[in-house]
Amino acid sequence: MDIEREELKDLTADEKEGAEIEFGQGGKSGKFSKKCKIIVAVVVVIVIAIIVAVVLVVVLKKKEEVKKGEVEGPTEFVGTPIPNNTNIPPLPTGSCPPGADGPYSHGVVAADAPQCSEVGRDILKKDGSAVDSAIATLFCIGVINMHSAGIGGGGFMVVYNRTRNFAEVFDYRESAPGKANTTMYVNSSLSSKYGTIASGVPGEVSGFRAAWERHGRLPWKISSNLLLIWRRMDSDLGTRHTPLLTGALRHRAFKNDAGLRELLIDENGNLKERGAILKMPKYARTLERIRDDSKSFYTGDLAKDIVKDIQDGGGIITLEDLKNYETVVRRPLSSKMGNYTWLTNPPPGGGAVSSLILNILKGYNMTAADRKDLNSSVLTYHRIVEAFKIVKNMTNPAFGESLRQRIYDNRTFDDYKYYGDFYSSTNTGGTSHLSVISPDGDAVAATNSINL
């Protein structure tokens, strides 16, 4: 849109210049009568108005599929430019540091499923932006690791634009239905985990669309179209599926869900084994409908189908809930770590906790030497893990230093109270993180979840 506004500015300036030339030819004295001036001024205004109207029509046609109200969530410019003194390092002139599979010299997509990283890579090869790649990759995660993320959940996405030195955060976490109340889970704590009554209003599709509208380069139908890459929406039952789903399927709410039984249970009533192919033709059709019209997820026929399924299962989400959902665009939190700038999501996200972890670790002045061998690596990771244990929700560097003094290099503590009453050891699933760096230096960090 900045380029298009510049074009409009140039056209208007040219038109004004032409008008001034015509004024100069209005007689030997170069002056007009008062009446002539008024007539010419009116003509100039009309001409400029026509040009503005024509340019606006062209601009509106350029933005494919985007109509007023189509992108759920705010569209005003509420991000934040990164200050010039933050010393963001330039991209390396040679290859990027080697990863698990070798050096990457053009771009990187890191997802928790190799197939999905490849989907994001292919989007970058099509000259897609970092956001285009992230959207395609996360749609893929919803297929391969459906227990971690998907269109029924939500998340946060931090987007960095290198050219503009600008970053913003998209908050598309689930929201509470309009009929939710403070006592709805009192009599049954399990109802907050199992069944459609536990569902929040999903934000993933809205968030993807909002991020694409501001940072996408490819048409939406390509960024959101996994079917261009996969002819069949199949999924291998991965290693992480079995322990998570086996435990979940013991609960009556899962066993009574016809959709889950059809997908995950074999003809003998047992959970399908690892390596089995999960056929998802209904989900494939849903993704096709999102590809063709993302608005349908919140206000169209797809929204009606979603609400019917939820309410048939006892849930309370309504069409009005979907219609009113909005993605929020926020300013990121930032902090320094050596010569690097850390950009993360503000509350209600957990970026403040991440910033506190960095404040704790600053005092160690870590360098590459802290991972030069096994012993130094173990100590480094020990310090990081201990820092994770004692963080809460504070970003004051002085507080971080006081907490660092509680970390011992030669021991850990079994008493959870040492780390504060807020700490407990848990092993939960239902979340997926993605990182993308595109060839132009733009970057995306996204965390998506279904809270399983």
From TrEMBL:
GO CC terms, sorted: plasma membrane
Database matches in InterPro entries: GGT_lsub (IPR043138), GGT_peptidase (IPR000101), Ntn_hydrolases_N (IPR029055)
Active-site residues per Swiss-Prot or TrEMBL entry: T431 (nucleophile)
GO biological process assignments: glutathione catabolic process
Pfam families recorded: G_glu_transpept (PF01019)
UniProt KW keywords: Membrane, Transmembrane, Transmembrane helix
GO MF annotations, alphabetized: glutathione hydrolase activity
Transmembrane regions listed in the UniProt entry: 38-60
Amino-acid positions noted as binding L-glutamate in the UniProt annotation, renumbered to this chain: R173, S449, I450, N451
Matches recorded under SUPFAM superfamilies: N-terminal nucleophile aminohydrolases (Ntn hydrolases)
Name of protein: Gamma-glutamyltranspeptidase 1
